[in-house]
Amino acid sequence: MTRRKLVAGNWKMHGLAADLREIEAIAAAAAQNPEVDVAMCVPAILIERAVRAVPRFAIGAQDVHHAEKGAHTGCTSAAMLVDAGARLTIVGHSERREGQRESDDEVRAKATAGLAAGLDVILCVGESLPVREAGDAVATVAAQLDASLPANSERLAIAYEPIWAIGTGKVPTVDDIAAMHSALRSRLVAAFGASGQAVRILYGGSVKGSNADEIFAVADVDGALVGGASLAAADFIPIIEAAARG
Ligand code: 13P
C-alpha cells in the first residue's frame, strides 16, 4: 500500500514570534511539494499566531490534556487547540513520558481526546539506550505501542523515536529502523486489521537533510518527526524535498 509521506517538525520549547518567518518559508516549500504532507508542532502559545501567519499550512501542538475541561492548572484541552487553529498534536513524546512521567494509559487517553476533537494525532514510542543494548528494543517498543494505542482512526500516525537518537546525531542502522517499523506495522495490523496498513509510521531522531533520503527509503518509513532540524527553514526544507523524492 502506498502511504503519503508526512514530515512533521517539533519545535519543542523553542520559538518566539520572530521565528514565525521560518514557518512562512517552510509553508511556501510545502506548497511546492504537494505530494508530501508537512506540519509544524509549535509551543502552544505560538499556535494561534502561526495559524494566522500561514493559514493554509498545518500547525500542531506538542501535547494535549486528556480531559475535556476542568481543574488542570497550566494544561491545554483538545478543544482549545482546535479553537486556536491547530490541526494536529503530538502525544507521548519521550521527553514528556520521562519529564512529566506520562504513563501509557495517560498517553492513550490523550490520543483518544485529540482524535475525538478532530485533531490528527502523532503518537510517539521509543526505547532507551539500555533497552536497545540489552537487545529488547523491538519487544519493548511493540509493548509500548500496544499499551498506548487509541481506537483505530485514519487521523492517527505513529512516530518511532529511539530516545538515544534524539538530539544526539546518532541514528539507528537502516536495518534496525526497518526491523522496528515492520514490528510496529504488525502490531497495527493485529490491532486494527487491514486498516492498520494505512497508519503512517514516522521515524524520529536526528533526521537531517543529509540522512533523510536513506531513512525514507526504508520499508514502512512513512515520514519523519524532526526536532532540531525543524527550527530553521534552511534545514527543514531539504527533508521535505527528500520525502517528495521517495
Ligand atoms: P531531533 O530531530 O532533534 O533528534 O529530535 C527528534 C524529536 O524528538 C522529534 O520529536
SSE layout and pairings?
Elements: E1 6-10, H1 20-32, E2 37-41, H2 44-53, E3 58-61, H3 78-84, E4 88-91, H4 94-99, H5 104-116, E5 120-125, H6 129-133, H7 137-148, E6 156-160, H8 174-192, E7 200-204, H9 209-216, E8 223-226, H10 233-245
Parallel strand pairs: 1-2, 1-8, 2-3, 3-4, 4-5, 5-6, 6-7, 7-8
Helix pairs in contact: 1-10, 5-7, 7-8, 9-10
The structure holds 1,3-dihydroxyacetonephosphate.
Shape descriptor reads globular
CATH superfamily: Aldolase class I
CATH class: Alpha Beta
Estimated structural class: alpha/beta
pLDDT < 50 stretches: none
| Secondary structure: helix percent | 40-55%
Reading the helices and strands in chain order gives: EHEHEHEHHEHHEHEHEH
The strand order across the widest sheet is 1-2-3-4-5-6-7-8
Radius of gyration, taken over Cα atoms and rounded to an integer in Å: 17 Å
Fold and architecture overview:
- Helices cover 43% and strands 15% of the residues.
- With 246 residues, the chain is α/β, with parallel strands linked by helices.
- The chain has a single domain, classed as TIM Barrel (Alpha-Beta Barrel).
- Helix 9 links the parallel strand 7 and strand 8.
- Helix 1 runs parallel beside helix 10 (233-245) and helix 9 runs parallel beside helix 10.
- The longest helix is centred in the C-terminal third of the chain and has 19 residues, at 174-192.
- It is globular.
- The two termini are 14 Å apart.
- The model has no long low-confidence stretch (mean pLDDT 97).
